[in-house]
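Bug #77: duplicate submission created two jobs. Keeping one. Sequence:
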Amino acid sequence: MKMRMKRKRRQSIWMLCLIPVFLLAGCGKGSGDGEKETLDYEVVTEAEIPPELKTIIEEKKQTEFKLTYTCDGFLYLVAGLGQQETGGYSISVGGLYLQGGSVCLETRSMGPTKEEAEAKTPSCPYLVIRLPYREEPVVFL
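Kept job's structure:
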């Protein structure tokens, strides 16, 4: 009886150790899923954002968010940092490419300079990019 319990306990411990390995196996940025095909895009100005998308951004911009939106044959990818205590924060595109059957968007966030941080005016930075509509799922990295 004690042997069975020890064996079950040992099996349970092994299972708990292996679960994270299986979950993390598909999360790499490496080129194991094939070649990267760079995609063309444009960063959208405030005036070019479709009105309905502007409304969605306004509702979400207080917290960090990532979303996709389609309109008039375009796919919009939006990433927001949420409310920051000061101005000077921004987001840039690190890369946009097709890999492994998914559209992958890498973003980089940048903090304020010392002068910008002293302003103490809260900000909600976000980035909107537009590309021709694609069927593939989008992965934000």
